[in-house]
Structures
1.
Amino acid sequence: MTLKIAVCVKYVPDATGDRGFADDLTTDREAVDGLLSELDEYGVEQALRIAEEADDAEVTVITVGPDDAKDALRKALSMGADKAVHVNDEDIHGTDVIGTSAILAKALEKTGFDLVVCGMASTDGTMGVLPALLAERLNLPQVTLLSEVSVEDGVVKGRRDGDAASEQLEAPLPAVVSVTDQSGEARYPSFKGIMAAKKKPVEELDLDDLGIDADEVGLGGSWTLVESAAARPARTQGTIVTDEGDGGKQLAAFLSEQKFI
Amino acid sequence: MAEILVLVDHADGAVRKPALELLTLARRLGEPSAVVLGAGEAAASIAAKAGEYGAATVYVADGAEFAEQLVVPKVDALTQIAKDKGVAAVLVTSSGEGKEVAARVALRLGSGLITDAVELEAGENGPVATQSVFAASYQVKSSVSHGVPVITVKPNSAAPEAAPAAGAVEDVAVAFTGNAAKVVSRTARVSTGRPELTESAIVVSGGRGVGAAEGFEVVEKLADSLGAAVGASRAAVDAGWYPHSNQVGQTGKQVSPQLYIAAGISGAIQHRAGMQTSKTIVAVNKDPEAPIFDLVDYGVVGDLFEVLPQLTDEIGAR
């Protein structure tokens, strides 16, 4: 039996760029180049490792996003995923996380899977709730925020390092997993991988294919409303001194003046 | 008055400080009530504390499920109470688990979700949340336009203020839905005796410039002299010098203390995303060109192994 692994990824504006908002208060995707969210590379990596350990496995990478989001899929394919699904529809623009989870859940059901793997959060919205929402919608166990993950005999196991404790988790497949940036360094695509990725299949789906009404998603279907977005005033640089033997004392004087000590 | 439901986070039988902040914020929106889940015998003292901070009612539910299953039992409980009581909003602490619980509750209630609020005010159409986004370069104000608002709030977003209320305990029998991951074992994190990173008023962090695990001793000594929490940059954590639980940055903890001291940290975007909203920022770095100096209120260009011990001694002498 082929172990079918689906990895959900997001195409995001480069976090090192000057990110901002478009006129309709959605994320500006024009001003800054996009790429595969760095945190999703960990999801792709763990999916590939699980696939390598399995007798027979297939890794499908899925995204919801505009035309350029194909770049994120190509990156994942060049890392070693087998095929890709791209949900793309003009009416998706402005969809919030609740709506995105509805679209992804339908796309996952259509594609078929034994295991869904996600990154811990996107680097743009940084909510970190999509995996939990998918588990809720698909009515599956959520095994999330894992810094270690493995699949054996139809059971997914992993370690979740929380604030107060570290927990060992397990759940039978099918299940929804998310992995953190502690789960293991993501591989770089090889030249061979990059060439092979060009020939791998990318299935295109729109909202009709998934049986979703346009008014359930998009800005209009969003259950949250962004009222304003304002650039934070840049911090003004304060005093900079060069240590000439009394740097610690000068710093102490500053902290004292500010009443910290 | 509108009932505002607050999920009270607790550990080792005690209320965690962010829950008191939530109760304080909830009073701006209506009348707070608290939800205490899986606290065992500590439930009574936790409920009393919630009452002290303004909870008129404290819903208490217990059961082995809360410890044995991940996230879902809390979702079951919170959804059930929110529906039965017809509350006006649900507030949860922004932690990894808190956000997951809130998200599933929102979906079950058919509600919009806002995460990581740093400020909360009453608006004409329900609560207005302020978020700090894109590595804290933007401030966004949002509201929920569908259903009962479910909002997670970051620790340190408000100073907890006591406002004694009835704190009447109401026991709740939760109908658990199951289908959760099983928690096979749990290892409590060993306490360092230092304040919790996200809750501390002062944070002292070390980065690549610390050079080795042993190098963190000077960072810890300074932190202890200030009663501060210790943080680390991703570079220091990836190098194995300090635990991941202390990582400050986009993929670690986001902190917003009164005072943040960065030692040997260059200030890459990954790090700035986790500390840029700190009230006062101080940096010590050998490299005068380090981007961290663009953010600071006070910076010292110098060797942290000289500057930090001298500062620690100065503090000790006061």
2.
Amino acid sequence: MKRSKIWFALFVSPILLAFTVVVVVPMLIGIYYSFTNWDGIRSGSWVGLSNYIKVLTNDKDFFKSFIFTAKFAATSVVTINLLGFLLALLVTRGLRLSNVLRSVFFMPNLIGGLILGFIWQFIFTNGFNAVGKFLGVEFLQGWLADSTTGFLGLVILMSWQMAGYMMIIYISALENIPESLLEAADIDGANSFHKLIHITIPLVAQAFTVGLFLALSNSFKLFDQNLALTGGGPYNSTQMLALNIYNTAFRFNDFGVAQAKAVLFLIAVAAITLTQIYYSKKREVEM
Amino acid sequence: MFKQKTISKLLIIVMLMSSMLLSACGTKTNETQGTGSDKEEIVEVDIFQFKVEIAQELEAAIKAYQNDNPNVKINLQTVGGGDDYGAALRAKFQSGNEPAIFNVGGPQDVQDWLDRLEELTNEAWVDKALTGVLSGVTVEDKVYGLPFNMEGYGLIYNKRIFEAAGIDGDKIVDFASLEDAVKTLDAKIKAGELKEEFPLLEAVFEYAAKETWVTGLHTSNAFISQEFNSSLDAFDAKTLEFKYADQLKKFIDLQADYTSNAKSKNRLNAVDYSTQVEHGLALERVAIIQQGNWVFGGVNNINPEVAENLGILPMPVVGVKEDSIPVGVPMYWTVNKNKDEKVIDAAKDFLNWLYTSDTGKDYIVNKFYFIPPLEGYGDLKANDPISAEVLRFAEAGRVMPWVFMGYPTGWGMDVLGVNIQKYYAGEITWDEAVQDSITKWQETR
């Protein structure tokens, strides 16, 4: 008993120390700054709740960003998980190329968000444009020049990048389904669609909890891809929350207000993802 | 017993490792103290500057300076771009690792950083400064910054295309003649007359509306500078009248109407700097772009023949000032007054050396390709064609000041630049764009 406590302390303390130093302490300092008018140079003076009042009553752009982010998150959570799950189904069928395909699908995840953003920017603005001109398809021309194509661009980029990661999670869940259950269903005469709906999906529900959570929180917190692909443009219509906060801080030098936004952002993301986890957990099936 | 020993060993290892990690951050200061204990004390000067283009050449200049001054060690760090530099500089100061020499952009920066700025009024170069270049960094008759260089922008055009179309760039001195030339050129491009010589040529202009600094800062400056005499005036102005908004509209309409996106102007909002400069001007896809002398290097890397044949046309403000281009100082060098006296003196001496000694001057003009902001450079003249053009305008007095450094923080790019994007996209009318910009200016002051 005593010994296990020592072991516990031994393994937990380094990471706890790191977590305190790089997450907890900065967060507390950040919350303090949200009550000041700090400009990033001189330490600001205490201004009470006025930063929060400013954000909540007088910042249309912040709410526009919030709505855009929510729309983006809702769409990309679906596309990322759907794609990831389909890819996982594809590579667990025992094809000869399975292992190669797994690496290929996972690869985009290894590239940094900024680089991906710039690469896709090239594809959307130049590649799509050239194809569009060649085929005479108007829709493919002028991508990222309006908010609709900016939105679609972000969804495509994120789905492409994150689907491979989700695939890995779903693969491990799929491989944990006992063969015997599927065989029994075969004997009972279930076709593959029935097996998918009634056996596979309920049994990978745990993985869905994780997958939805990761996709949701990552979509909400998205920054580098947003910065690199559209930079919030045109006219800030594709500016997501994290970028809005960054701009408030580093373009308008309103660090206090930016901190207040960040605190609100933290609360919102926590509330949304915790709700999601609560409901997803309910659907999980114990084997 | 054995197991407890292993645990304690492990604990020791963990503690040692973490102490190594922590101490790794602190070693630097020890080193500097160690080297300083020789007979002559070494003074370390940290420079944190923003001009990426000159990073290598500046490093060479530093070496030359160190050869003459063996007791000074200068460490150069460069972080590029306008916004990124501001953010990085703040981070640098927050980290406690304050540089001795850093850059500020204008009145707003000077006000923000005033607690850190060493007064430079008594430096030797102050008397040599060209008229007006110090106004942005002067507070109550005290000078706080040394100007980097002079930069100018306008409508940069490809002289070969103009010649082939039979247009004389030198004769373009007002809006009417500019519009005529643009129309002539456009007609010839559409008729395919220039196809043989310039196969890629598809439009007169390319305009990077995605880069809100191009629209919101540079374009607008030509028109707002008719309202304010200097960035300081703009900085002090509580309200903006926007007297020349109509002229601004004319000018951005002209630039948009003769691009390849003329029929769907919202697509201009996706045109970025490299599309405008490298995929536009340098490839001879377009004939005119609104940019400045800084594009020379980029164009020269792609197509030296184009680079050697570039000229500048004025940015006409109809009925007010039609034959001029904006010329100004992009950034200033400043010295951190919270440093040791010795470091401050060395920093001042280095800046003085760089801008007034013969070796330094050579670097400024021939290696950095700067247009010097000081007098006394004699025969040393910028040798790239665009800088030469800027100089030609400056010498003829056909210039207007840069006032955008005095706009409210973020206003130029994130208010006016964004409104111009909305205007191009058809989201709002021009009047709405102007009204909103005026209101937001007032709100921030």
